[in-house]
Amino acid sequence: MIIMIAAAAENNALGKDNDLVWYLPDDFKRFKALTTGHHIIMGRKTFESFPRLLPNRTHVIVTRQKNYHPKHCIVVQNIEEALKFIPENEDGYIIGGGEIYKQALKYTDVIELTRVHSSFEADAFFPEIDSNHWELVKEEYHPKDDNHLIDFTYQTFLRKK
Predict the structure, then answer these.
(1) Alpha carbons 83 and 88: distance in angstroms, whole number
(2) Which are the contacts of 83, defined by CB distance < 8 A and separation ≥ 6?
(3) Which residue stretches of the chain are H helix?
(4) What is the pLDDT along the chain (161 residues), one digit of tens a residue?
(5) Which of 77, 100, 112, 151 is the most buried (most CB within 10 A)?
């Protein structure tokens, strides 16, 4: 399956200046738990926002830059090429950014979305989830607490048949 995983604000904001605009430690733990051991597909800017390679994951980077070759990564020119690297009978994760999410949406089977219950100024946005094509099948609300300054909800959407 192709699974899109993201954290997006109420206004679909993902981030600004190649960085997140909130800090949710439990969401990072969930991201790690879901993606570890899998192929993760991302755009170049998302990859460059990481301090280092994410452990125990195969990094597939989509970029138009012909001479871009970071160590220990697969580099491709488009999302279709990236999807070919996901082994048969394994899940692959689309992890961003905004443009990659838009391009990959038509290939995605599941969306694992952390809905951050606020709106933010941003320069990258998650695509609109069209209820004609997606069914919300699971929700788990998390109120703000000492470690999370914003309420958020884990949401799982399945593509309608």
Answers:
(1) 10
(2) 2, 41, 92, 104, 107
(3) 25-35, 44-49, 79-83, 98-104
(4) 999 999 999 999 999 998 888 999 999 999 999 999 999 999 999 999 999 999 999 999 999 999 999 999 999 999 999 999 999 999 999 999 999 999 999 999 999 999 999 999 999 999 999 999 999 999 999 999 999 999 999 999 999 98
(5) 100
Close Cβ partners of 1 (under 8 Å, ≥ 6 residues apart): 91, 92, 109, 110
Provide the phi-psi class of 132: left if phi over 0, else alpha when psi is between -120 and 50, else beta: alpha
Tokens describing residue 134: 């997606």
**What is the topology classification, in CATH, of domain 2-159?**
Dihydrofolate Reductase, subunit A (3.40.430)
**Residue 91 has which token pair?**
């899940």
Q: How far is CA 81 from the centre of its chain?
A: 18
